[in-house]
Amino acid sequence: MSTQSRVKLIDGKAAAARVLAEVSSEVSQLHGLGIQPALAVVLVGSDPASQVYVRNKVMRAEETGIRSIEHRLPADTAETALLELIERLNADPEVNGILVQLPLPLHIDEHRVLQAIDPLKDVDGFHAENVGGLSQGREVLTPCTPAGCLRLLQDSYGELAGKHAVVIGRSNIVGKPMAALLLQAHCSVTVVHSRSSNLRELCRQADIVVAAVGRPRLVDANWLKPGAVVIDVGINRIEQDGRSRLVGDVDFDSALGVVSAITPVPGGVGPMTIAYLMKNTLAAARLQHRTLISQPQLSEASCPSIS
Ligand code: GUN
């Protein structure tokens, strides 16, 4: 058997389908109680990638039995108008989750907008209260991409305690919350970034590598310990042989010769992000309807990402 045939391809589509099936089943139980979880998605401007992401989120919500409410605003929308919309969504008992698609136009202060979202409706887990709660190990709404990555690792690796995980990238959306989740899963965690002086050597010590830097094929076989498990969060569009294609932060073909398991791009992490958005929307609906729902169910679902 060749080395490559022993490599496990981590199938994010199949894993996401399992998560969505769990969510659908719990959502239909809520329907039985007269509750339909609802997600408000706000898109400002017409960035083509954001439009695709929003369309996929809305589609997935509907498939899962979650009502989606889209707010598309022009690129020149004033920050005050966006803040007023968020206030209305915060106050609306029919809305359980609020997602403001990033990036926002430059004239809008992203931090102010994210802080305006009610932390109980913050299905992105970007509000400082949720970020702080995550770092303290409290049960909070957790950013969807790292939560999805953790689930892929647990599914393919089993017990993570004691493993050395290297996270490449320190963004607020992926790198930092990923490190916090891996720490909670009892890994030894190293975060490396563009200013790390010995990036490759640090990475080569890792049992688990999560690459989230947005640099096409930065990580190749020389960066990886034999048998490492690699989660590639990067989605980079490149031109190759006159064609446009998507590649990750990891050189997939090179890594295949070394790793024991790896996520492909596309079809790895991407579908899990949306699945965890649905899971967070369900958790937010449970949090807001806690008087109607028995406690054991609530505690199970209110922290889907950390369990
Ligand atoms: N833009 C890129 N990723 C994300 C995400 O996870 N959430 C939001 N709201 N915007 C994004």
TrEMBL record:
Residue ranges constituting the Tetrahydrofolate dehydrogenase/cyclohydrolase catalytic domain according to the UniProt record: 10-124
Family of this protein: Belongs to the tetrahydrofolate dehydrogenase/cyclohydrolase family.
Underlying gene: folD
Pfam families from the UniProt entry: THF_DHG_CYH, THF_DHG_CYH_C
Gene3D superfamilies (alphabetical): Leucine Dehydrogenase, chain A, domain 1 (3.40.50.10860), NAD(P)-binding Rossmann-like Domain (3.40.50.720)
Role noted for this protein: Catalyzes the oxidation of 5,10-methylenetetrahydrofolate to 5,10-methenyltetrahydrofolate and then the hydrolysis of 5,10-methenyltetrahydrofolate to 10-formyltetrahydrofolate.
EC number: 1.5.1.5, 3.5.4.9
Alphabetical list of CDD domains matching this protein: NAD_bind_m-THF_DH_Cyclohyd
Subunit structure: Homodimer.
Alphabetic keyword roster: Amino-acid biosynthesis, Histidine biosynthesis, Hydrolase, Methionine biosynthesis, Multifunctional enzyme, NADP, One-carbon metabolism, Oxidoreductase, Purine biosynthesis
Organism lineage: Bacteria, Pseudomonadati, Pseudomonadota, Gammaproteobacteria, Pseudomonadales
Binding residue positions for NADP(+): 169-171, 235
Residue intervals of the Tetrahydrofolate dehydrogenase/cyclohydrolase NAD(P)-binding domain: 143-288
Pathway per the UniProt entry: One-carbon metabolism; tetrahydrofolate interconversion
NCBIfam families, sorted: PRK10792.1, PRK14186.1, PRK14188.1, PRK14194.1
Catalysed reaction, written as an equation: (6R)-5,10-methylene-5,6,7,8-tetrahydrofolate + NADP(+) = (6R)-5,10-methenyltetrahydrofolate + NADPH; (6R)-5,10-methenyltetrahydrofolate + H2O = (6R)-10-formyltetrahydrofolate + H(+)
Protein's UniProt keywords contain Nucleotide-binding: no
Protein name: Bifunctional protein FolD
